[in-house]
C-alpha cells in the first residue's frame, strides 16, 4: 500500500532484516516512552511491582533453605501461590482478598472434612455418589449466592475460594487417607502466605485505598468548584473580548467524574477492609463518601449543560447580558469558593468553616437575579438573543441547591467521622 | 430501645429462645423472597449455578472412577480447580479466562523450564540465587505490565497466572527432578479443565455477552427515545391538565445509562473472545458499540436537563407556551421515533430505513421553532414566565444534533458489521 513496505517485501532476506532493523528501534523507543509515562504518572506502580518481586523472593526462600523446607515441606509452594494471588496494589484490596481467602479456606475445609466423614458412612459404593451430590449441590448454591449484589461486592473472591477448597478437600479426600491433616496444612499455608503479603504490602510504602477515595471525592468536589469559577470569568468576560480558552482542560476536569460511579463504589468496599489505618479506623463511614459522590455527580450533570455554552459561538454581551453579568459572576465565584472549601474539608478532615457564608452570598445573588428577571423590560428585545444568557442564569440558579446538598452531606460526614473543628473557632 | 427487645432480654433462656423462634421465620421468609426475586429477575442465574454444579460433578468423576484415575492420577484435582476458576456466567468471560489461563501456563512453563536449566549451570550454591533473582525480576516486570490499561482490560488474568506458573515451575523445580514432566502435566490438566468448562458453558443454554452488549446498547437508545416521546406528551399537555405522571419510571429508564460506561467497555472486551458466535463471528466491530454507547450517554446528559422540568412545578401554558407547543412536540415525537428505529436496527442487525426521514422532520420543526423565537413579540411578556418553556425548546434543539451523531455511528456499525438491508428497499 505504501512505498516503504514493498521495497522490504521484494528485497532479499538480508535487506529485509535490515529494513526491520530500521523499524525496530522506533517501536522500542515508543514502547519505552509508554513505559516511562506509566511509571511517571504514578511512581507507586513501580514500587508495587518491586514489592511483589521482594515478597516472592522472600517466600521462595522457604523452598531453598533446607531447615525451613524440612519444617513446611512441599506445601510451601502453596505459600508462594497465596502471596501471588493475594498481593494487590492497595492495602484494602490485599486485606480483602487475604481475609476472604483465609476465612473461605477455613470454613470450606471444615465443611469438606465433615462431608467426607459423612460420605464414608455410606460404604465404598455410596461414597463417591454422596460426595458427588454434595459437591454439585454446594457448588451450585454458592455460585448462586455470588449473584447477590452485596455478596458480590465484598465476598466474591471468598465464595469462589469456598467452592474451590470444598471441592478439593471433599473430592481428594476420597483418595487421601488423612483428610484432616490435608485440610489443616492447606489452612496453615494459606494463612502464612496471606500474612507475608499483608506485611510486605503494609510495611513498605503502603497505598491505602481509603486515602485514595478521600482524595478522589475531594478532588471531584474541587473540580466542580474550578469549573464554576472558571466559567464565571470565561463566559461573562470573554464574550466581550473573545480569546481562546487557554485553561479549558483545567476547567473541564470535572468530566472525569461523570462516569466514576462504579470506581467510587469499589473503592468504598475495599476501604472497609483497612481497619488498621491510623486515621480512619474501624468504623469510618465509607458509605457517606459514596453518597457525596452521587450528589457531586448530579451537580456535574447540570454543569455539563453549562459547558455547552463555553463551546458555542457567543455573541458579544448585549444589554441583557451586561445586566445579569454581575450577579451571575457572583454566584459562580461564591459557589465555587464553597465547593473548594468543602473539598479541602474532606481532604484535611476538618470541619468546614466559611461554607455557609459563601452559600448565603450565592443565595442573595440568586434573589437579585430573580428580581431582575422578573422586572426586566422586554420591549424591543429579541428572544433568541436573550435566551442563551438567560438559560445560563437559570442553570446557575439550579446549581446552587445541588451545592447545598453536597454541603449537607459533607457536614454529615464531618459529624459521623468526627472531623476536627478548626482551632480558630474554639469558644473561649 | 423498643418495647419488644427488653422483654426478650430480661426473660429466661427458654422464653428467649421462643422469642428468637418468632423472629426467625420472618427473617427466613424475607431471605427466601430475596432469593426468589434474584432468580426471577434473571432465570439464567439459576441455570448457570446448576451448570457449575454439573461441570464439577462431571470432572470429579475423574477422581472417583478407577480406570480414569489411573490415567491422569492425582493431577486430576487441578482439572477440578481449573473448571472452578475458569467457569464464568457468560461465554466470553469463560473463553477469555480459559484462553488466558492456557496461554499463560504454556508460556510461563516454557520459560520456567528454561530458567531452571540455566540455573543448574551455576552449581548447587548458585542455583537458588539465580532462581530467586529471576523470580523477583519476572514477577516485578509482569506486575508492572498489568498496569497498562490495554493489558489490564484483556490479559490481566493471564498475566497473573503467568507469574504464578513461572514461580511454581522454577521454584519447585529446585526440589523436583522432572521439571519438564511437571510443567507438561500442569499444561495438560489446565487445557483439559478449560475445555470441560468451555463445553459445559457453550452447550447448555449459553449466555453470549456479545448479545447482551447489543441488547444493552439497543435498549439504551430506545430508552432515550421513550423519554423524548414521553416528555413531548407530558410536558406540553399535562401543563394544561395537570395529572400525576403515571409512567414516570418508564420515561426515566434512561437514568441507568448515565453511569454504564465501565460496564459497556468490559462487555465489549469480553465479547471479543466469543469468536465462535454464529451471528457475530471473528471480526465483529465491538469497538463501535462502545462508541455508540458514549454518544448515547452524551445525549442522556442533555436529556437529564429536560427531566428537571418534568419534576418542577409547571404553570399552565401561557401564550408563549402554546405557540411553541406544536413544533416542540413534533421534535420530541420525530426524534423519539428516530431513536426507536435506530434501537431496533441495532437489535435486529438490519439497516435502518426511515431514520433519515424522521431526522429531517425534526430539523424542519427546529427551523420553525427558530423562526418563531426570532419573531416572537415580547411586549408585555414576563421573562421568568417565558424562560422555562424557552429553555426546554432550546435544549430540544440541542438534542437533535446528538441524535444525528448516534444515527451516523449506527450507520457506520451497519456497514462495518454488514447489517442486512430490509427486503422492501431492494431496487427492482
UniProtKB/TrEMBL annotation, chains A, B:
GO terms for biological process: malate transport; monoatomic ion transmembrane transport. It comes from the Eukaryota. The keyword Transmembrane helix applies. The keyword Transmembrane applies. It is found in: Membrane. It is a multi-pass membrane protein. The chain crosses the membrane at residues 46-65, 77-96, 103-123, 129-148, 155-175, 187-208. Its main location: membrane. GO terms for cellular component: membrane. It holds the Pfam family ALMT. Keywords: Ion channel, Ion transport, Membrane, Transmembrane, Transmembrane helix, Transport. Belongs to the aromatic acid exporter (TC 2.A.85) family. This is Aluminum-activated malate transporter. It comes from Quercus rubra (Northern red oak).
